[in-house]
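We store amino acids, tokens; thus:
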Amino acid sequence: MVHPHEELHDICIELNANVIVADFIPELQKQLRGREIESRIYAPGNIPSACEATLYYTVLTQWGSPLFSDELRPYITDINLLLKKNGKVLANAAYRLDGMAYDKWSSTGHKLSPLLLKMFASDSMAQWQNAASGGDEASHFEQDVAKRAAAATRN
């Protein structure tokens, strides 16, 4: 879901200490740089004043062994991204592991790339500029992110 907003060049990412995927933040920042968006990480409650917008994320994982291996590793099952500016939702996107789990062991970048493409693609700006705001959808997404984060914290 996207809402009309200006093109962004510098965003802040609120650190989510519950995310155990070591390459998530580096991959997220790498892909944002590839879209000419600079980013910086900040601790919750300490948002820098010079941020154009803030990106919040949750990542849920499960543990398993890849094919032909006995080593247990986490794999990403869900990613939720929420982009806000001055309390207003600009965009959000979610990844859910396919029911057949074909991409279960795919890289973080492979799972993250389509989400960022939808949220930040320059060819989508025209759609964003013409889109009607859907506050109810944004509220539902924020509630979903909060529920998933709470469930991940309990586990």
Q: What stands out?
A: Residues 32 and 75 are 22 Å apart (CA to CA).
